[in-house]
Amino acid sequence: MEIRKITVLGSGLMGHGIAQVSAMAGYNVAIRDIDQSFLDKAMEKIKWSLNKLVEKNKISSKDAENILSRINTFVDLKEALGNCDLVIEAVPEDMNLKRKVYAEVDKLVPEKAVLASNTSTLPITEIANTTSRPNRFIGIHFFNPPQLMPLVEVIPGAKTDRDLVDATMQYVRNVGKEPVLCKKDVAGFIVNRIFIPLVHEAAWSLERDSAKITEIDAAVKFKLGFPMGIFELADYTGIDVVHKATAEMYSRDKKVINPCPMVEELFNNKNFGQKSGKGFYEYKSGTYERINLTKEEAERYNPLRLLAVAVNNACWLLTNDVCSKEDVERALKLGMGLKEGLFSIAERFGLNNLVSELRKAAKTHGSFYEPDATLVKLAS
Predict the structure, then answer these.
(1) Where are the beta strands (DSSP E) in 40-158?
(2) Residue 286 confidence (pLDDT)
(3) To pair with 360 at 20 to 30 A between CA atoms, which of 66, 269, 295, 354?
(4) What's the CA gap between 8 and 15, in Å, rounded?
(5) How far apart are CA 7 and CA 19, in angstroms?
(6) Which of 153, 232, 248, 329 is the catalytic position?
(7) Using CA atoms, how far apart are residues 354 and 305, in angstroms rounded to an integer?
(8) Cβ atoms of residues 25 and 71 within 8 Å
(9) Would you say 352 and 379 are in contact if contact means Cβ atoms under 8 Å apart?
(10) For residue 380, what are the CA distances in angstroms to 17, 62, 311, 314, 362?
(11) Residue 192: active-site member
(12) Is 111 a catalytic residue?
């Protein structure tokens, strides 16, 4: 499979970012959206991003011009899909919307083209089966923002051709990213399988442990080596995004997540985090704010159960042959910014302690906390 022209469907944050990194790698790119004003805004953001790279002497002005010359915008779907080799869909996370988009694309896209979705949680196999070519369909999950985040999860569906997996991994490397293969189309893939349940477990900790929000976040940051607290990260990601991912994952696998009503309550009250001015925290300036967390606060909370839930979900991925231990570590470092490998952190806290904590939680709060067989084996 040779990729020369890429069509990106959707010009939002993810769409224009994917278009930019693809054009920077030398691909010809078409961005398609339903309104020219959306496309104009996307191109302005791409120009701004490229200008920043010029200012930092990472690319020349001529490079920026050449990159922009490789990007064209379209409202007409047929024109956008003309002669494309790869379609990357980056429309909002709504299965009905994606079905509608693929129903149109399937009729117009060249026979040679590969279809890909940038979905972060929706099942690739289910989306692929809405098309006439499920064997030529794959998940390419870029992380936000695509220009900066190094990780891309590659997820084949149940019928995806093997040669397509190899070609997709190479495309990801060509655009300067690091691919991690998620061998099975499981709820949450790799990173969100660990991140989203962790948000809920932290919310449960607020209720069960009588700990302050900043104490939990400080412990996650300073004791577990996360780049920021888990509540802070949820607010940055968007409570709306977390809630949507929760609903999609939980509807497909009840064992993946233990939903805390607090997250749904924030969503229902439109407290989406940084973007709305309030989530788990309040934000006053209207711009990106970091929460002031201290090592002193970290000492007041033991994040053992949070770590246990994260490691338990990571072990589930290993038990079910979704990815390797090394892939889990790489994905979490690249996608969540962990300073240390998750299993290294687990060993520091004691694997037996994690198993004991999970068994204790299972007795009190239900089977969600039952330790995975791989974790029990590692601890023995």
Answers:
(1) 71-74, 86-89, 114-117, 137-142, 151-156
(2) 65
(3) 295
(4) 6
(5) 8
(6) 153
(7) 7
(8) no
(9) yes
(10) 45, 60, 15, 17, 19
(11) yes
(12) no
Pick the catalytic residue: 11, 49, 118, 192? 192
Is residue 116 within 8 Å of residue 88, measured between CB atoms? yes
Q: Tokens 């999860």 appear where?
A: 153
Q: What angle do CA 91, 180, 343 make, to 5 degrees?
A: 120
Whether 210 sits among the annotated catalytic residues: the reply is no
> What is the residue-level pLDDT of the chain in tens, covering all 380 positions?
789 999 999 999 899 999 999 999 999 999 999 999 999 999 999 999 999 999 999 999 999 999 999 999 999 999 999 999 999 999 988 889 999 999 999 999 999 999 999 999 899 999 999 999 999 999 999 998 999 999 999 999 999 999 999 999 999 999 999 999 999 999 999 999 999 999 999 999 999 998 999 999 999 999 999 999 999 999 999 999 999 999 999 998 888 999 999 999 999 999 999 989 999 999 987 667 789 999 999 999 999 999 999 999 999 999 999 999 999 999 999 999 998 999 999 999 999 999 999 999 999 999 999 999 999 999 99
Residue that has been written with the tokens 């906390």 in this structure: 369
Give the model's pLDDT for residue 353: 98
CA distances (Å), origin 154, targets 95, 143, 164: 19, 12, 11
User: 3-state DSSP call for residue 27?
Assistant: coil
What is the spatial distance between Cα 78 and Cα 23, in angstroms, rounded to a whole number? 21
243 carries an active-site annotation: no
Chain centroid, CA 260 distance in Å = 20
Distance CA 354, CA 351 (A): 5
Catalytic-labelled residue, pool 16, 141, 200, 243? 141
Question: Cα(200)–Cα(231) distance, rounded to whole angstroms?
Answer: 10
Whole-angstrom CA distances from 245 to 188, 200, 379 are: 8, 12, 31
Q: Which domains does the chain have, with CATH numbers?
A: 5-181 (3.40.50.720), 191-379 (1.10.1040.50)
